[in-house]
Design a protein that fits this description.
two-stranded antiparallel sheet; 33% helix; binds flavin mononucleotide; 12 helices; alpha/beta
C-alpha cells in the first residue's frame, strides 16, 4: 500500500517521501536577494520530500511584494545558491517557484513608477487584492493594486523569455527544477480566465487554444532552456483569489491544459486548492478527471491534514501532497506527521516581513517531548 513516507521518483529525482512544502512568500529579503537567513529557513525544512520555494519574481515588472528574493540578477542567483547548497547538504530537493504577478502590483514596485502589466487593463479590486509595498512614511504594508496596462501582442514574447531566463538562472543557482506559478490570480491566470482576459488578439480568451497560448508558450520556453524533467507548474482551477471570477469554462480549460502538459512530459502539475469559506474547491471527481488528462506527477495543496493526505495518495488521486502553513511552525513536519506528534500553530502576524521571529525560530519537536508523547499513548 502506498504511504506518505515512501520514496518517490520525480523524473530524475529520488524524493525521500511524498510530502512537499508548498511555496510561501515570507517577505524577509530586504534587498531582494536570498541570504543566510533564507538558507537557514529552507535547511530547517529539508526533510520534506520536495521543497518548493516562495514565489521568486522573474523580473522587477513581475514583482508584487517588497522584500522578496528575485531571480533575474546575478547577485540574486548567488543568493539562491546558498539556499540550494544548504538544502542539498541535508539531502533535500528543491524547486524554485518562478513568478510574475501581472496586475497584482503597484507603481511603486515598478521601474520608473510605471503601470504594472497584465492581460487586461482592468485592475483587481476585490478586498484581498493588495500589493505589499513600503509606504511614503517608510513603513511596509498592504495597499490597493494599481491600474494595469494590457501587454501589447508583440510584448508577450518578451515576458515569455523572462520566464525562460529565470528558469535558466534557477538551474545556475543549483535548483533541482522550477515550478511555473500559473495559479492564484497572477499573470498566467489573468490570461486563462475568460472573465478577466478581454483581449482580441491571439492571446484572447475566445478559444481554448488562444486562452492557453500564453501559459503553454511559457512552458515550452522553460522546457527549451532546462528540460521537461525539471519543469513543473502550479495551477489553481476553480480559484477565485484576487478578483478571478468563477466561469463555466474552468473544467474544459484545465483538462485541455492537462492534456497539453501531458503531451510535453513535464515533471509535475501542482494543483492549489484555495478552499473558500471552509469549502473545498477541487473535488475528488475533478482530480480523477485531471488524472485521466495528465499522466505525470500530480501534487495537491490546500488545507490538507494527515488523514486526507493519506487517503488521496492511497486512492491514487495524487502522487505528492503539499503542506503550506503547517510547515511554517513545524520545520520537522514530516517527522511529526509520521509519528502523529502534535503540530505547533503558526502565528499569522509574522507570515510576511519582519525578522527571524516566526521564521527560523520555530523549534523541532524535542526528543524529550517525543518520549513524553509516546508514554501518554
Ligand atoms: C504566508 C503564505 C504565503 C504564500 N505564498 C505563496 C506563494 O508565494 N506562491 C504560491 O503559489 N502560493 C503561496 N501561498 C499558498 C500556499 O502555497 C498554499 O497553497 C496554501 O497556504 C494552502 O495550503 P495550506 O492550507 O497547507 O497552508 C502562500 C500561503 C501562505 C500562508
Amino acid at each position: 500500500m502506498k504511504t506518505l513516507f515512501d520514496s518517490y521518483q520525480l523524473g530524475a529525482l529520488r524524493l525521500a517521501n511524498r510530502i512537499a512544502m508548498a511555496p510561501m512568500t515570507r517577505s524577509r529579503a530586504p534587498s531582494s536577494v536570498a541570504d543566510e537567513q533564507t538558507a537557514t529557513y529552507y535547511r530547517q525544512r529539508a526533510s520534506a520530500g520536495l521543497l518548493i520555494t516562495e514565489g521568486t519574481p522573474i523580473s522587477q515588472e513581475g514583482t508584487g511584494f517588497v522584500f522578496i528574493p528575485g531571480i533575474w540578477s546575478d547577485e540574486q542567483v548567488r543568493g539562491w545558491r546558498r539556499v540550494t547548497d544548504a538544502v542539498h547538504q541535508e539531502n533535500g530537493k528543491i524547486y524554485a517557484q518562478i513568478w510574475h504577478v501581472g496586475r497584482m502590483s503597484h507603481t511603486s514596485l515598478q521601474s520608473g513608477g510605471r503601470q504594472p502589466v497584465s492581460a487586461t487593463g482592468t485592475p483587481a479590486r476585490d478586498r484581498a487584492s493588495l500589493a505589499f509595498i513600503v509606504a511614503e512614511d517608510g513603513t511596509p504594508g498592504f495597499t490597493q493594486t494599481s491600474v494595469p496596462r494590457p501587454l501589447e501582442t508583440a510584448e508577450v514574447g518578451r515576458v515569455v523569455q523572462d520566464f525562460a531566463r529565470a528558469a535558466d538562472n534557477a538551474r545556475i543557482a543549483g535548483f533541482d527544477g522550477v515550478e511555473i506559478h500559473g495559479a492564484n490570480g497572477y499573470l498566467i491566470e489573468q490570461f486563462l480566465n475568460p472573465r478577466v482576459n478581454d483581449r482580441t488578439d491571439r492571446y484572447a480568451a475566445d478559444t481554448l487554444e488562444n486562452r492557453t497560448r500564453f501559459v503553454l508558450e511559457v512552458v515550452d520556453a522553460v522546457i527549451a532552456r532546462i528540460g521537461k524533467e525539471r519543469t513543473g507548474i502550479r495551477l489553481s482551477p476553480f480559484g477565485t483569489l484576487f478578483d478571478m471570477p468563477e466561469h463555466l469554462q474552468t473544467e474544459e480549460t484545465y483538462l485541455h491544459l492537462g492534456r497539453e502538459l501531458s503531451a510535453r512530459g513535464i515533471a509535475y502539475v501542482h494543483l492549489a486548492d484555495q478552499w473558500n469559506d471552509g469549502v473545498q474547491k477541487i473535488s475528488d471527481e475533478f482530480l480523477r478527471k485531471f488524472r485521466d488528462a495528465f499522466s505525470g506527477t500530480i501534487i495537491l495543496a490546500g488545507s490538507l491534514d494527515k488523514s486526507r493526505a493519506e487517503r488521496l495518495v492511497r486512492n491514487d488521486l495524487v502522487d505528492l501532497v503539499a503542506f503550506g502553513q503547517p510547515f511554517i511552525a513545524n520545520p520537522d513536519l514530516v517527522n511529526r506527521i509520521r509519528r502523529t506528534l502534535p503540530l505547533a500553530k503558526p502565528d499569522r502576524s509574522t507570515y510576511y516581513g519582519g525578522n527571524a521571529v516566526g521564521y527560523t525560530d520555530y523549534p523541532s519537536f524535542g526528543a524529550q517531548q517525543e518520549a513524553e508523547v509516546a508514554e501518554s499513548h
